[in-house]
Amino acid sequence: MSEELDTERAVVKTFVPTYQKEEWKRHADELDMSQSEFVRAMVQAGRRGFEVGESGDVEEGGSSTSNPGGDGLETRLLALLDSGEYLSWDQLVEELAGDFEDRLEETLQRLQNENRVQYSGRGGGYTVVADGE
Questions:
Q1: pLDDT tens for residues 66-92?
Q2: pTM of the model as a whole
Q3: Is 103 contained in some domain?
Q4: Are 28 and 37 in contact, with CB atoms under 8 Å apart?
Q5: DSSP string covering 50-101
Q6: Beta bridge pairs of residue 125
Q7: Domain containing residue 130
């Protein structure tokens, strides 16, 4: 794309339950982001996980038959590069790794809540909870 990107800002409004807004605000604060930056980043990240099929239907995932169970890396990479900007290797790694880090954190949190994994400061990391603990 040789066109310059339109960087003019526009207002978008949405209404969510109060608990959801509070959760988004807390997460944005943890990431040192404004609520607008957080919502924009989450929408973009969410869009990377969906493809539009030939029928026009939205399909979740992004794995192809050549990569069953894959995470749609190719789709996510092309979405990043579709901005028309040149992105360095480090910028691409940062964008793609951030998504992985978020998923890793959510998964570890869920497994800890289910008492299947625990963190040990003394041990210096995470481990599977032994049966009966």
A1: 444 445 778 778 888 887 788 888 888
A2: 0.38
A3: yes
A4: yes
A5: EEE-TTS-EEES---TTSTT---HHHHHHHHHTTSS---HHHHHHHHHHHHH
A6: 120
A7: 89-133
